[in-house]
User: Which sequence fits this backbone?
């Protein structure tokens, strides 16, 4: 067990992902602390739920529980669910991201308090001076962090864990999962906020789901390329040996000429598609090419490392 851990620590992948997770959580902590906490704007996140619990504790007991502490406790419970329901890798990575969110916010509370950035005479405490600007800033920062972490099979913790569970077992899009789980949490804001603030929170949660799906589609998008050419063998060899991607060949019949031809179909990333089109243009290959975006690919898809290993063997 110890040797396995040491082997993981030696890999470049581990340290790259550790940096990505740390930066992602720093962005998340700033988004929550500076754009949610001052105005008590409740977006459908565990951070939003923690703000509600903090406000309720102040009303009932006269003492507001620190938001960072409440986040830590809720995340600890959700991490157990993540480990058993989603998988060990996701669970272990999310342990790190979830547990550092509270301490990062405590650092901001101690050394960079939001009170320094708020005008004393403001009707609603807001860093940006307007609740809608706060909402936009929070959604953009959080969505970017969520998307990058989902890409490496991690998350910001909290709501993302619930969304990932919904995504895995009910097969909703990840953005829709974020929105559904978030809307439920948003409704808890009735305990501390007026109706219009709750509505703003619901709108923000819905936009958050849309932006996550938009960012995710951008990161995962591939090109589905279909080519009809008399030089299909040359194009096939280039795709297989140079791009190290699979191809599918179809025999097709031209509707106008009634000639038998071969159509090549392949899934490529953007860089590979650019290289393929450069070959066709540079060598003057006579080809009819159509290409469309594919937002997600399931099943066998070679990573850069796997492609490099195949090239060495070739």
Assistant:
């Amino acid at each position: 067990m110890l040797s396995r851990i040491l082997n993981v620590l030696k890999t470049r992948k581990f340290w790259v992902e550790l940096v990505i997770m740390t930066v992602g959580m720093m962005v998340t902590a700033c988004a929550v602390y500076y754009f949610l906490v001052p105005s008590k704007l409740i977006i459908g996140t565990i951070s939003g739920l923690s703000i509600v619990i903090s406000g309720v504790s102040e009303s009932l007991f006269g003492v507001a529980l620190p938001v960072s502490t409440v986040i830590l406790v809720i995340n600890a419970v959700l991490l157990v669910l993540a480990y058993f329901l989603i998988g060990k890798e996701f669970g272990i990575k999310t342990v790190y991201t979830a547990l550092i969110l509270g301490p990062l916010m405590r650092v901001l509370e101690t050394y960079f308090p939001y009170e320094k950035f708020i005008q004393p005479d403001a009707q609603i405490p807001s860093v940006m001076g307007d609740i809608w600007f706060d909402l936009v800033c929070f959604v953009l920062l959080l969505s970017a962090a969520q998307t990058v972490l989902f890409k490496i099979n991690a998350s910001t913790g909290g709501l993302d864990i619930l969304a990932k569970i919904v995504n895995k077992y009910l097969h909703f899009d990840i953005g829709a999962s974020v929105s559904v789980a978030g809307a439920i949490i948003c409704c808890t804001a009735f305990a501390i906020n007026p109706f219009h603030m709750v509505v703003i929170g619901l709108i923000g949660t819905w936009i958050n789901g849309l932006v996550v799906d938009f960012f995710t589609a951008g990161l995962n998008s591939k090109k589905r390329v279909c080519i009809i050419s008399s030089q299909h063998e040359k194009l096939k060899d280039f795709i297989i040996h140079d791009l190290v991607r699979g191809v599918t060949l179809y025999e097709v019949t031209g509707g106008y000429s009634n000639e038998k031809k071969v159509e090549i179909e392949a899934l490529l990333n953007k860089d590979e598609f650019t290289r393929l089109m450069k070959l066709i243009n540079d060598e003057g290959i006579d080809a009819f090419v159509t290409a469309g975006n594919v937002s997600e690919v399931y099943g066998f898809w070679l990573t850069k490392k796997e492609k490099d290993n195949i090239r060495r063997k070739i």
User: Anything to note?
Assistant: The chain has two domains: 2-219, 221-313. The beta strands are 222-229, 248-253, 260-268, 287-294.
